[in-house]
Design a protein that fits this description.
The chain has about 300 residues and is an alpha+beta fold. Helices cover about 60% and strands about 15% of the residues. A five-stranded mixed β-sheet has the order 2-4-5-7-6, covered by helices on one side. α3 runs parallel beside α7.
Amino acid sequence: MNIFIITVLSLLIFIFLIRHLFLSRQIKRIANQLNSMRKQQSRHKIGISLGNRQIEELAKEINMLISRLNEIEADKKRSELQLKQAISGMSHDLRTPLTAIIGYLQLLKEEETDEENKSEYLSVSYKKALSLHELINNFFLLSSAESGELPFHPEKIHVNNLLKEIILSYYDQFQAINKEPVINISSEDLIVRTDKNAFIRVAENLILNAIQHADGEIHMTADKAGNLFRFTVENECREGKKPDIKKLFDRFYTADETRRSGHGLGLAIVKSLLDKMDGQVIAEIDGNKLRIICEWKLCPE
């Protein structure tokens, strides 16, 4: 009897030791893979066919952590690239008007410059300074909106009449480019609860974008779509300058890199403001026509 018990115990101890050895090897295998990743600065997933359910579950959890670290690293690289692009874009856009202002001011200092030219140089310098001021304000607005520091004061707005006023205020600019926009604003009284200043800025930026980049007719429509208020601006793109929809709302993006009017911030501001206003903006390309649609939830009647 004693021999039988001793034999059974010996067998159990042997099985335990084999199992322990097996688990130790699997854990060491995982440790070696992690150590290799650390030395090579790579984040490949580890093998999970390890022959033990608990060890496999551990490997799966480690792989999930590795996936998350890969996502964080990718986000970091994207953020660094966006920061570099932002700094590059800001430097270019700030330098252009500053260089012009300095150049004209130097001409003003020249003794041989007559009064007529001085008046012209002063006028151009003033316009460039206003452009620079607007650009800096756009930088500040975009930064404040994206960081969540821009104050919003929601109120009920009758958007039909407000849009008519906004569009009418750009009458002179439409005349300057010899365009008569096709306007279709619903006669139904539509009310949206949102920040009035932000709403005005969104509408203005969409109109300015069309004025600066449109070719052919400009169509503006404001109507009801289900429980949404929808403002649509549609225009033909300049020949060979069809925008990349995926980049359209990126900071400093312009379909025509040789033209810097608008600084590539207008639509980025539109998207950022709408995100904060619980609205959305959609861009579509239909043939040679660009359609930008902004939507807000309507107030219940």
